[in-house]
Each structure stands twice: as C-alpha cells, then as structure tokens.
C-alpha cells in the first residue's frame, strides 16, 4: 500500500538530537583557528614589547659609557697605495688610538676577493668589518674609517665628541637619503637604542666614516652566544642579492636601500651632521641637472674646517686629475704639528 504523501514528522524531536559528523568537524576546526589566532596575538605582543624595551633592559643598554671600547677599522689597498701613504695612515690611526685607549685593525682589500668577486672590490669593507668583530668580539664600538680619510683633531675622543652629546646631535625626522627620501629618521630615538651612526653628504648616505655598536641587540642569559645586531646588520648588507644587483654606487646604494626599507635597521639608526664625523676636503655643490630645475637651491656644509675631527679626500682615487698621497701630505704636516703641540716635544711621528 502506498501513501500519496510522506509520513508526517513528529512535532516532538528527541531531546538530544545527534549532530552530524560534518558539523562536528567544522566546529572543531573553528576552535583550533581561534586558539591559533590567540597564540599568534600573544606572541606578537610579546615580541613587540621585547623589541621596544630591549634598549634599556640593562646597564649595557643604558647611557653610553665613557669607558666604551672602540676599534678603528681601515681597509687598505696595497695594490694601489704606496708604502709611504699607508705608513701615514697607520701612524695617524695608531696615535689617535693610543691617546684614547682604542685599538686599530688594518686589513687589505685583496684578503676578501674570494668573497666579493665579481662585484666591485669596495664591497670588501663589509667582510673586513665582520673580520674585525671576530678578532675583537668584546669590543663595544667599531669605527669604520676610509683609507682616504685622516684624523685631524687627535685630542677629541669619540665619547666627548659624539657619544656624550648624541641626544642633541641626532638629526630627527629627516630624509634618510638626501634630499627627499620619503623614509625619515625616527623622532623619538634614545642614545641607548642607537647601534649605527651615519652621516650624509649632499646626495647620499656617507659610509666612508661611520660607527657601529657591537653590544647585544637583546640581552641574552649567561652562557648563550652573543646576539649581535652588528653581525646581523653586516650580513643583511652583504646579501648576495644586493651584490648581484649592480647598484650604481655598489655597497653605498645597497646600504641606503636596507636602512630605508628594513625597519629593524632604521629603528637603530642615528644620522648626525657630516662635519661631525666625515668632513670633505671640498665644498659640496648641486649637480648641473638639479640647478636647471625649478627646485629651490640646496646648501650643504661639508668642507673641513680647523677643529673638525676628520678630513676625507673622497673621490681622490677615482679622479685622474687628483693624487691622494699629494693631497694628504699637506694635512699630514699639519697633523704632525698638532700632535707635537699636544705632546709638548715637537717631534711627532716625522717620517
């Protein structure tokens, strides 16, 4: 017998209706998602708090100490520099280091050729700095100084000249790369949070004299390897991708790229006036192309003046009409007279 309509359902369903297996799996999947989001949120919050508070967790990350140790790193090119020129450079660095309790580290470009080729040899600066950190693992600061730069004020220590006044010396909320980078330096950075001190010239970040901090980025328990922000920075800078990219100004443009677009690097960067660490031996001028535009004229104070710490003969090795050794000899004589006056004996490093 067949009914015309299906049997009517009961109006009283059982009190514990069975949930289908499919609905049960869907509900369980959502619960797992909620737990995962919660764990991810807690971890993110923890990392952010650790990052922003790491600068002042311990005394090693507090105000910069007057007793901070410094290594002055200079990469020479023995294939193109005369022995007399390199001797002047060494005497200059050695005298300054002895006066302030610093150490010096000299190396040669060719030492790192197997790491940099086929890129320009100027990239050797980065493995050389890594080498210096390996040789001096407990050093607090590394001062990278071009072999075409000369220390002209030997009485000025880095602490008196830079570290003790870093709060007022930092150029805040300015374009990282001049003249008009959209990325600006931080406006609220404290000296204890600074791990990289750079200058700018008229058009670029000036990497021929800069200071790199070698203390831990985040304090680690005793017994664990040092977590060095400096090593991370150098590894990021020396990335094979950047060396293969063929930047117009090689490692200089690569440096400009990473400090702008890597927040972990930008967050530790301080930019100071050029003449504080990297005075040039010439006036900076705008390019012909820029002068032909409607943009307002720019001025930049870069030329060395008596009393400045450094004079940098930038570009002397590339320009055919210039001679690095000849240019430096004039200032070497001035430096000898300054050192003789400080020592009070009139016999400072005559060559």
TrEMBL record:
Pfam family, one: Glyco_transf_34
GO BP terms, alphabetized: protein N-linked glycosylation
GO cellular component, one term: mannan polymerase complex
Keywords, alphabetical: Glycosyltransferase, Membrane, Transferase, Transmembrane, Transmembrane helix
Residues annotated as transmembrane: 34-52
One function term, GO molecular function aspect: alpha-1,6-mannosyltransferase activity
Record-linked InterPro entries: Glyco_trans_34, Nucleotide-diphossugar_trans
Domain of life: Eukaryota
Recorded family membership: Belongs to the glycosyltransferase 34 family.
PANTHER family (UniProt xref): ALPHA-1,6-MANNOSYLTRANSFERASE MNN11-RELATED
Protein name: Alpha-1,6-mannosyltransferase mnn11
Source organism (scientific name): Knufia fluminis
Organism taxonomic ancestry: Eukaryota, Fungi, Dikarya, Ascomycota, Pezizomycotina
């Amino acid at each position: 017998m067949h009914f015309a309509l299906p049997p009517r359902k009961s109006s009283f369903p059982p009190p514990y209706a069975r949930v289908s297996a499919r609905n049960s799996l869907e509900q369980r999947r959502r619960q797992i998602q909620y737990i995962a989001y919660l764990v991810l949120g807690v971890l993110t919050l923890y990392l952010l708090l650790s990052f922003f508070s790491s600068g002042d967790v311990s005394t090693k990350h507090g105000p910069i100490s007057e007793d901070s140790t410094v290594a002055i790193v200079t990469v020479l090119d023995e294939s193109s520099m005369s022995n007399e020129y390199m001797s002047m450079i060494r005497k200059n660095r050695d005298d300054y280091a002895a006066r302030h309790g610093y150490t010096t580290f000299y190396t040669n470009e060719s030492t790192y050729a197997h790491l940099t080729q086929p890129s320009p040899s100027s990239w050797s600066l980065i493995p050389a700095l890594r080498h210096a950190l390996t040789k001096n693992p407990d050093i607090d600061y590394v001062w990278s100084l071009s072999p075409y730069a000369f220390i002209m004020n030997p009485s000025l220590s880095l602490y008196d000249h830079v570290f003790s006044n870093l709060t007022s010396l930092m150029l805040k909320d300015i374009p990282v790369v001049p003249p008009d980078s959209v990325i600006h330096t931080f406006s609220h950075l404290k000296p204890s949070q600074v791990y990289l001190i750079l200058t700018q010239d008229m058009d670029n970040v000036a990497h021929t004299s800069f200071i790199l901090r070698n203390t831990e980025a985040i304090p680690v328990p005793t017994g664990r390897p040092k977590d060095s922000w400096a090593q991370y920075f150098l590894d990021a800078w020396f990335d094979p991708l950047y060396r293969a990219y063929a930047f117009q100004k090689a490692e200089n443009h690569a440096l400009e790229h990473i400090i702008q677009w890597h927040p972990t690097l930008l967050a530790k960067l301080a930019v100071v006036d050029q003449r504080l660490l990297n005075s040039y031996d010439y006036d900076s001028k705008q390019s012909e192309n820029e002068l032909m535009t409607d943009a307002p004229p720019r001025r930049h104070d870069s030329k060395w003046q008596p009393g400045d710490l450094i004079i940098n003969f930038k570009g002397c090795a590339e320009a055919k009409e210039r001679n690095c050794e000849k240019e430096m000899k004039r200032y070497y004589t001035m430096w000898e007279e300054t050192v003789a006056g400080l020592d009070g004996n009139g016999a400072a490093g005559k060559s």
